[in-house]
Amino acid sequence: MGSRPAALNTAAVEAVYRRDGRRVFATLVRLLGSLERAEEALQDALQAALEQWPRDGLPDNPAAWLVSTGRFKAIDALRRARRYDTLGDSVDDLLAPDAEPIPELLADDTLRLVFTCCHPGLAEEARIALTLREVCGLTTEAIARAFLVPAPTLAQRIVRAKHKIRVARIPYEVPERAALPARLASVLRVVYLVFNEGFGSQHAAELVDEALRLARSLVELLPEPEVEGLLALLLLHAARRDARLAPDGALVPLDAQDRGLWRRADIDEGAALAARALARPGWGSYALQAAIAALHGEARHAADTDWPQIVALYDLLLAREPTQVVALNRAVALGMRDGPAVGLAALDALAADPALATYQPLHAARAGLLARAGRDAEARAAYVQALALTSHDPEKRYLEQRLAALS
Question: What does 133-194 look like in DSSP terms, one character per residue?
């Protein structure tokens, strides 16, 4: 054992789990060959840590300790079960006394697990849900919110996907290069969703770092324009994370952020990646979004933002990805380029869709443009509507402040 701090307690184990838990899990999947077995092994290892670390001190390498402990506890459980059941030859390698020693945690264990969960034999939504749950440790409820489906429905998708992996014996591996394209779109979307979940939470910064790490690994594996575009997009957004919240916890909008807090090295790297991605055939929506983020990041003052170029990029993005979210962002950009009346006309056209009646960003965007247009009474009503649809505390505080300023 290594250091033995005076107050090593449950919090220390929780901190290790938050930092390394999902990578430990990914390595256990590789060693044990089963998602279910690895989950049980991780829980057993965490229980052992809660019992032993306060007594013996923190290990020199806590993550490797969890891998080793989890694996050997799984082997013990298999040995006990083998006395009563015929488990077949599939566990012989695990039980063999000369089985490979526990290695250090490998960064690409997580990448292997991502590609396993994103196998084309699984339905696309099941792939993404399974990856977010098993690789990234997001709760079923959080994933259900991202998919806009009930949590029980999402849970059933995950159960069915795990069953298919087991029955179809889907291998735990990064596929050969020729097989990568069939899985790449799902993998990129998973990394993007993980980043968004972390970026939108005060308590999940480690998800931002994990998404960036996975995106870098993907660029090393497959340096194609859309892969580089995704890494560029994540870097450009992450560069602003220190300026996103005010001291009171309220969200600070992009045009009001202290740009001196932005991480210029990340902006420079992201902008260079975005430019390189768009200079080659094969770019897509991630590269376009990265180019938009680069224009924001490169503006030293909000007034310097190149809104005409941003609108032009949104036109390209909307043609490629005609979603309501893209149309909403383009409408806001139009309002910045051509004035609030033009932006409001575009937003009002979107608001005619009943599916957007409860879409909070639409009402918040309308409120902002109405306030800029001097239509204060309508702006207050739109802010009230947006507030009623907001559960995210930093955003709620920001909207409350904007509403108070109009009173």
Answer: HHTT---HHHHHHHHTS-HHHHHHHHHHHHHHHHHHT---SPPPGGGTHHHHHHHHHHHHHH
pLDDT of residue 272: 97
Q: Which residue has the tokens 């033995």?
A: 4
For the record, the structure tokens of 117 come out as 């969960």
In this prediction, residue 407 carries a pLDDT of 78
Per-residue exposure over 345-375, b if at least 16 CB sit within 10 Å of its own CB, e if not: ebbeebbeeeebeebbbbbbbbbbbbbbbeb
Interatomic CA distance for residues 9 and 397, integer angstroms: 34
pLDDT of residue 386: 95
At 105 the pLDDT is 45
Residues of the chain with pLDDT below 50 are: 3-7, 87-89, 95-106
Amino acid letter for position 357: A
- Digit-coded pLDDT (tens) for 25-50: 888 888 887 788 888 899 999 999 88
C-alpha distances (whole Å) from 23 to each of 108, 116, 217 are 9, 15, 14
User: Which structure tokens are listed for 46?
Assistant: 């965490």
Neighbour-count burial for 113-151, b at 16+ CB within 10 Å, e otherwise: bbbbbbbeebeeebbbbbbbbbbbbbebebbbeebeeee
Predicted pLDDT of residue 143: 80
Q: Which two tokens stand for residue 298?
A: 């490169």
**Tokens 């993404």, located at residue:** 128
Six-digit token string for 329: 């962002």
Candidates 142, 89, 115, 144; CA nearest to 29 is: 115
Residue that is written with structure tokens 């000369």 in the block:
98
> Concatenated DSSP letters for 217-230?
HHHHH---HHHHHH
Q: According to the model, what pLDDT value does residue 101 have? A: 44
d(CA 355, CA 117): 31
Q: What is the C-alpha to C-alpha distance for residues 41 and 26, in angstroms, rounded to an integer?
A: 11
Q: The whole model's pTM is what?
A: 0.77
User: Tokens 């990805």 — which residue?
Assistant: 321
Backbone φ/ψ region at 57: left (φ over 0), alpha (ψ -120 to 50), beta: left
- Cβ 63 vs Cβ 45: under 8 Å: no
